[in-house]
Amino acid sequence: MDVSEDLARDYPPRLYPEGASIFENKSINTNSHFSEIPRLRQAIGIDVWDNLKTYPVGLIAKLAESKLVWSGKTVHYLLCRQLRVYKKEIWSLVVDQPLRFSLIEFGEITGLNTNPLPEESFEPDPENYKALWELLKVPLGYGPKFDELIEALTECPFWSADQRKWYGLLFLQAIGLYGLHHNCRIPFESAKRVFDDDALMTYPWGRTAYEFLVDSIKLLHPQGGSYTLSGFKDVLLVWAYESVTVFGELYGRKVNPDEIPLLRWGGSRTRASLATTIAKEMNDHGTVRFKSDI
C-alpha cells in the first residue's frame, strides 16, 4: 500500500487511545450473505450466471468462486487501530507505521471504476423496469431490499433470461458491493442501471461501493459484545494481506498471483493472536515488514 513518509514520521493521533477502541474485545460480524450464492446460481441458471461475470458487478460472482476465506479477526485488528482522519479514508497504525485505505487502494484491489459519479441523469427502460419491480414487489423509485430479493428466489427460474440476468446483478450488488442488512435497500442509482449494458459498464461501481463501505465504518457505534460491518468488507481483508507482509504470508495464502489483488488470495480463518504475530515478527526481523505498493 502507498504509505506517506511524512505521515510515517508525524501521523495523526489515534481515533481512540491504545487498547481503548470502541471495537476492542468485541466480535465482528458482517452483512454479506455469500452463503446464498449457490441458491442464486441455481435459480438463474448457469448460462445466466456465467454471463453476469462479464459485467463489472460480476466481480462479486468471481469472488464467490475464488479461494478467499473471510477472516474477520484480521480486519478487526486494523479497525481497532484507526487514526483520527476526517477525510473519507481509513488509516490504521501497525506498530509505528500508518496504513492508508483510500479510494486509490480500493480501486487497485478491485479493479473497479472509481471515476466521479455521473452528473447526467439515467432512466431505465420503463417497461422492463416496471415489470421486474412488480415481480420483486419493490416500490417504484426505490432499490430492492435484500429480503425482497431472497423472497424472489423461488419464482426467478420461471422468468425470462433477461429478467434473471437483471435479478442476478441486483443480488450481487446486495450481497457483495453493498453487503446489505436484510432490510436495507440497494441505492436506486445503482439498482436501475442493471437494465442497460452501457450504463452497467461505465458506472463507477468502485467509487459508490468504496464510499458506502467507509461511511458504514465511520458510523459504527457498537452495542453489546459485537458489531456488524456493511459494505464490500472483503476489500479490507485483502488490504491487510497486501499491506502487512506477515499477515499475507501466514494467513493470506496467495493462490492466484497473476490475478487482481481481490482474487489473488486464499487464506483461512485466523485463530492466532495477531498481536503475538506482530511481536514475533519484530523479534525475528527487528521490524514489521510492510509493502510499499500493491
Account of the 3D structure:
The protein has helices spanning 5-9, 37-44, 46-52, 59-64, 72-79, 103-110, 126-136, 146-151, 161-177, 188-191, 197-202, 205-218, 234-243, 245-252, 274-285; strands spanning 27-30, 90-94, 97-101, 226-229. The chain has 294 residues and is mainly alpha-helical. The termini are close together.
Structural class: mainly alpha
Helix fraction bin: 40-55%
Over all CA atoms, what is the radius of gyration?
Answer: 20 Å
How many alpha or pi helices? 15
Distance between the termini: 6 Å
What value does the average pLDDT take? 92
SSE blueprint and pairings:
Elements: H1 5-9, E1 27-30, H2 37-44, H3 46-52, H4 59-64, H5 72-79, E2 90-94, E3 97-101, H6 103-110, H7 126-136, H8 146-151, H9 161-177, H10 188-191, H11 197-202, H12 205-218, E4 226-229, H13 234-243, H14 245-252, H15 274-285
Helix pairs in contact: 2-3, 2-9, 3-9, 6-12, 13-14
